[in-house]
Backbone:
């Protein structure tokens, strides 16, 4: 939404996701555990933060339909984990189809924190899987749940790049759910690009131009 008024088309699909924390519990691990269906990590309060792998809701609107072809391969891979719903271009949604003049209050000023509603059904499903694989947690309950918005690219790689058509404009987005793990390194790379210093890694895989120059955007090309 921020790129659009500057004439920059950024294919980005939003997934509404849900996470939660459990009550304090002893044992299992003091670190992190990841499984094909869910992942969790120990909290300082003694509980676990838990999330289902790849699960979420996609709301179809004008923006998502415009980039549907670029995301088709990714959708085929993840279709069983996603719920589709017809949505509207709400003013508070990061992928809303909005325009505004420079002298107007922007959507980012109207909504400083985007706080979507969580899905309690995903919490029930996740707790069931958690108890099934770890019987020691059979009496543990979810203490708090919250929602979030995951921004994905068609190939699930982030875009960390300058934009040639608009000198001085840089993008660091589309982390596809990997922001916590890659955040420090991504921030380092973005800072390197902005300041023109030697980059911490090769920035070529994360270039913005791959979205517009006909590059095959394959979600199976990495990891």
Residues:
């Amino acid at each position: 939404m921020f790129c659009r008024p500057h004439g920059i088309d950024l294919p980005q699909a939003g997934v509404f996701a849900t996470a939660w924390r459990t009550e304090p519990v002893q044992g299992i691990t003091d670190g992190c555990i990841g499984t094909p269906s869910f992942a969790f990590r120990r909290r300082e309060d003694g509980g676990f933060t838990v999330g289902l792998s790849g699960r979420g809701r996609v709301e179809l609107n004008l923006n998502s339909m415009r980039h549907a072809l670029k995301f088709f391969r990714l959708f085929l891979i993840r279709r069983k984990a996603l719920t589709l719903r017809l949505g509207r271009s709400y003013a508070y949604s990061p992928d809303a189809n909005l325009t505004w003049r420079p002298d107007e209050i922007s959507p980012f000023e109207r909504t400083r924190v985007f706080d979507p509603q969580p899905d309690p059904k995903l919490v029930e499903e996740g707790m069931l899987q958690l108890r099934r694989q770890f019987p020691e947690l059979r009496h543990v309950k979810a203490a708090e749940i919250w929602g979030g918005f995951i921004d994905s690219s068609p190939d699930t790689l982030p875009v960390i790049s300058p934009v040639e058509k608009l000198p001085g404009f840089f993008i660091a987005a589309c982390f596809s759910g990997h922001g916590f793990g890659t955040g420090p390194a991504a921030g380092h790379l973005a800072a390197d690009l902005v300041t023109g210093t030697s980059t911490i890694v090769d920035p070529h895989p994360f270039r913005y131009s791959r979205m517009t120059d006909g590059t095959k955007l394959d979600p199976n090309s990495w990891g």
Notes: Residues 4-151 form a domain with the D-Amino Acid Oxidase; Chain A, domain 2 fold (CATH 3.30.9). The chain has a mean pLDDT of 85. The CA atoms of residues 189 and 201 lie 7 Å apart.
